[in-house]
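Deliverable D4.2, example record:
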Amino acid sequence: MTIDGIGSWIRRRAVKSRGRDAIVFRDVGTTYDALADRIDALAAGLLARGVAKGDRVAYLGNNHPSFIEVMFATARIGAVFVPLNTRLSVPELEFQLEDCGAEVLVHGAGLDAQATGATTATEIRRIVVVDPVTAPDYAPPSWVEDYESVLAGAGPLESPPETSLDDPSVIIYTSGTTGRPKGAVLTHGNLTWNALNTLVDYDVTSTERTLIISPMFHVAAFGMGVLPTLLKGGALLLQERFVAGEALATIERLRATFISGVPTTYQLMMEDPAWPTADISSLRSMTCGGSAIPKKVIDAYAARGLLFSGGYGMTETSPGVTAMPAHHSAAHIGSSGLAHFFTEYRLRDPATDEVVAPGERGEVEVRGPNVLREYWDRPEATAEAFTEDGWFRTGDIGFADEDGFLTIADRVKDMIISGGENIYSAEVEQAIAAIPGVTGVAVIGVPDERWGEVPHAIVTLAPGHSLAVDGMIAFLRERLAGYKVPRTLEVVAELPRTASGKIQKHLLRAARPRD
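Output generated by the structure prediction step:
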């Protein structure tokens, strides 16, 4: 028996869950059968516009039903979905679109400037999502097609290309450790097995009402929330952008049962004026990833009778590696939990290549059907990412107890996690190095009460040059997403370096002790 890809999920689910809501957006529901029809119409429209199996279709937009429709429509015809971060600058978007060779870009009506800037020098076909609620009089330019018109004008979907679990389904760009992002290619099988891991370890049910507050262009939102819920037949409650008070109101009004977020989102909710009186009694499950959950956040939710299920993962693992069962969380504070049911990890000493004993630190390496096969058009990076015996090198250092509860201790790749967003210091350093007069630069994460940590820049300057923080910020805002731009700057006489010239960031971090 050959099992096909995720593109058939909604059509199959439409028969099993006919008449039940698949998506609720702005309090308006879309049933599984209606969603299946829209997905098939869009798939037919893409085929009619020359999109073939293996072609890339990119999406730039906030949380919206069209994100889900485009993702499944591309999967339905064997094309590859490329979600783009709406917070990226035009040069960053342009690089990703060119790198993946996108044939089509679907984007929100409010993102015309970014889409235009990123595609001016390309031949990418553009389809705009017109939201009649926010843009009733919007008329797209003649060279851009209206999304609803594409669906309305599509014929029946006849004989779509066959897909298998081994075919690529999604390309998600990860911030680059060498200054350029890499496209992680996730197959239909990767996404399917991650969804199964989530169903098993977080006990997702067919009556789930999953509130999506994190951007769906991040793998955590659609990998741990969207896909498992739809596979099981539950309903997605989409919040276009995260606003703490609105999230609390939605939980109360629509009786959300499951929510997945990062520590910052949960903290903002507990700090909102509506928190003391908000009825969140419908919630039965909350997952949290990205970084450690502050104790004050844990305590605030525990006082309302709610426990967090933590976890550890990354884009390359679709994203789950470990999950913390909620009933174990109090006894294992700081731990990321146990390996997902169909995934395994090991800890290996990078110096000796030996697997370490419980309690000892080693690099986390992962193996399982949810682990990516390759980086897009990066054979050398792909080869470097795997051990000779097939384990994926995460670059993270951790330790585990006798039962396998994993704790992440450090990040070898110098990644900064700010409010759930991954920031690789090399990418920011490359941008700062282009500022006239900068002779050396290091970017490190420093503690921040709201965002967990934020980037901090330390630079050396050539004689006769000066640099103020406002000037640095202005320079970087034209080149990087806002969340990547350091708000603080330190000018030093020299940076600590090894004999080979490598900056010793551990010494810089030691000079700024973390909370």
